[in-house]
Automatic annotation (TrEMBL):
This is Sepiapterin reductase. It holds the Pfam family adh_short. Keywords: Cytoplasm, NADP, Oxidoreductase. InterPro entries: Biopterin_syn/organic_redct, NAD(P)-bd_dom_sf, SDR_fam. The keyword Cell cycle does not apply. PANTHER family: SEPIAPTERIN REDUCTASE (PTHR44085). One of its GO terms (molecular function) is sepiapterin reductase (NADP+) activity. Its main location: cytoplasm. It is found in: Cytoplasm. One of its GO terms (biological process) is tetrahydrobiopterin biosynthetic process.
Length: 136
């Protein structure tokens, strides 16, 4: 991942694109522990740390770590069916908000909101924004 990002950033210079954005798709599990999602959590937390570092190392790039919320995807379905934790399975099979799980979103719902944040460009580089964060 790091090598790939470096290659892309070397290719897409400010001469090619005046405004350069990097979006890291993250998850609530990067900052809050959940049973049966530990390995996924570690990966997401490490990526967030990497992109926070990138944000402070290169002020010509605007970095956003966007947490899309629970999205109706194949991964969501697999967790609902195969998680070893009964509470996680139950939370992911319900389509309503709970302590563990928020209402399941469509990919379009969450992408529209992410694009709004990018178009408005009001976030601090390196910020972490969740779909369910209150807009200011």
């Amino acid at each position: 991942m790091i090598q790939f990002n470096n290659l892309i950033l070397e290719s897409i210079t400010q001469e090619v694109a005046k405004n350069r954005f990097v979006v890291n798709i993250t998850s609530l599990v990067a900052v809050q522990g959940f049973p049966s999602l530990t390995q996924y959590s570690v990966g997401k937390a490490a990526r967030e740390a990497f992109f926070r570092g990138l944000a402070v190392e290169d002020d010509t790039i605007k970095v956003l770590s966007y947490s899309p919320g629970p999205v109706d995807t194949a991964m969501h379905e697999i967790i609902a069916k195969e998680s070893f934790d009964e509470g996680i399975r139950n939370a992911f099979t319900q389509n309503s908000s709970s302590e563990v799980h928020r209402t399941t979103l469509t990919p379009t719902q969450t992408v529209v909101k992410m694009l709004k944040y990018l178009e408005e460009d009001k976030f601090q580089s390196g910020a972490r924004i969740d779909y369910f964060d209150e807009e200011k």
